[in-house]
Amino acid sequence: MRFPSTPSRAMAQALAPDLSLAGQLLLVVVASLVIAASAQVRIELGFSPVPITGQTLGVLLVGALLGPRLAFGATTLYIVQGVAGLPVFAGGTAGVARLLGPTGGYLIGFVLAASFVGWLAERGWDRRPVLTLLAMTLGNVVIYAFGLAVLSLYVPAERLLIAGLLPFIPGDLVKIVLAAALLPAGWRVVASFRGPAAP
Length: 199
Known about the structure:
By secondary structure, the protein is mainly α.
């Protein structure tokens, strides 16, 4: 398998290569609201402080669509909104306690994962299903690395994986496959508008 490495463009940049600063800021705000909306898809687990949500799909799609710089801005803005008191975190919650509590590592992981997936997308990893699967999987690894690191401060080591990883794998697999179908299909739409040579 050949792994693309030459910088190109994320999908939003390909669709609007000359987007103004105001337009970029609008994209960041809209993307932060998309993440907030995905956080409201929530299933509580009685044995874990971490709920199942739609956030990982929202975060990683934002990364792939916007590229690293705007994705970093969108995910950071999302966290700032929640810390400032807007009910954007999972289940409509808010406050700095969410960032400093057991789920705080996942929030930090969102910023880094979206930026990383955006970096991969700029190198063409979101244009073919297999590479998209790999990019989304690596993004999830980043989220769980930080999420579990912080969660380990709140739950015993023997419960860490059941509280913060294993129950989420089936849903994440579905999200990864969904992204692997949506992103390459999106690029085909971009090509239809801008021609097959769209960068």
